[in-house]
Amino acid sequence: MTSGPGCSPARSPGAPNRRRRCWAAFVHAVSGQRLVPRHGRIGFLARELLDELPHTV
Fold first, then answer.
1. CB-hemisphere CA count at 13 Å for 32?
2. 32 Cβ neighbours under 8 A, 6+ residues apart
3. Pick from 9, 32, 31: which is nearest to 22 by CA?
4. Do residues 49 and 20 touch, judged by C-beta distance below 8 A?
5. Are the C-beta atoms of 36 and 17 separated by less than 8 Å?
6. DSSP 8-state class, residue 12
């Protein structure tokens, strides 16, 4: 994935804070969705979500 709807990557030079927050929320949500098949809708830990972030980006 390269970016969410209406977002540009947070690493873009000069990206406004609003875009950074949008990008972070999108990556967080997609990472959580990627964990659902393995852990169910609830029950995974924050560290598991953190481990998923590089695979999402």
1. 11
2. 44, 49, 52
3. 9
4. no
5. no
6. S
